[in-house]
Amino acid sequence: MKYAAGGAPRFLSGRLGPEPAPVMVDTAGLPLGVLEGLERPVTELDLPYDWVAVFYSDALTETEIALNNFLGEDELKSIFQQGCVRGSVSRVFETFNDVVETWFPMGMSDDLTLVCIGE
Fold first, then answer.
1. Counting Cβ atoms within 10 Å, is residue 18 exposed (0-12), middle (13-18) or buried (19+)?
2. DSSP codes, 52-119
3. How many structural domains does the chain have?
4. What is the pLDDT of residues 100-114, one digit of tens each?
5. CA 58, CA 110: separation in Å to the nearest integer?
6. What does residue 51 show for φ and ψ, rounded to 5 degrees?
7. Cα dihedral angle (101, 105, 109, 114), rounded to 10 degrees?
8. Domain range holding 20?
9. The domain that contains 70 carries what CATH number?
């Protein structure tokens, strides 16, 4: 997978199955549209056939679960692992969706985008 980072939240990547070994992938950089003509380096990430990547907008980490309590990297990795253990990309997505519906019953403070890719 090739990507050019633009200040989006770090994304998760790991292996489907019982040992996902999730990593948070760096996406540091200026947001799109900040500087005209800004060139971005392209990063290549090798994703073998049994890996999955989860991209999400900042609404997931910037919406309060409870007073001053937000989803952090440890919680995101745990949710990711639960989904990966279930064995498919669609199960990873379902696990994140279940968390959103359960932990944020009143909705989010911003629009949420969640994308899971893999095989």
1. exposed
2. EEEEE-THHHHS-SBTTB---HHHHHHHHHHHHHTTSHHHHHHHHHHHHHHH-TT--SS---EEEEE-
3. 1
4. 998 888 888 789 999
5. 8
6. -105, 160
7. 0
8. 2-34+41-118
9. 3.60.40.10
